[in-house]
Design a protein that fits this description.
Radius of gyration: 28 Å
Distance between the termini: 89 Å
Strand content: under 5%
Shape: rod-shaped
Helix content: over 70%
Number of helices: 2
Length: about 70
């Protein structure tokens, strides 16, 4: 009788660990996918290397003349 109780708790513990591992994998996969999509969008958009437009340069030059 006692061995059956131990087996059941061992089986439920294995199930809990398997469930936690699967949920952890899904979370890690989702976060890595999100980071990859975000990084791809930023790199394609050129947001990190944005250059000033002609109008922005004119505004900056006008602001420097006022000070």
């Amino acid at each position: 009788m006692l061995s059956q109780g131990v087996t059941r708790s061992s089986d439920s513990m294995t199930g809990l660990l398997a469930n936690a591992a699967w949920k952890g994998f899904k979370l890690a996969f989702g976060l890595s996918s999100l980071a990859t999509v975000w990084a791809t969008a930023v790199l394609r958009n050129g947001a990190l290397w944005a250059s000033d437009t002609k109008e922005e340069k004119q505004e900056l030059a006008a602001g420097m003349l006022l000070t």
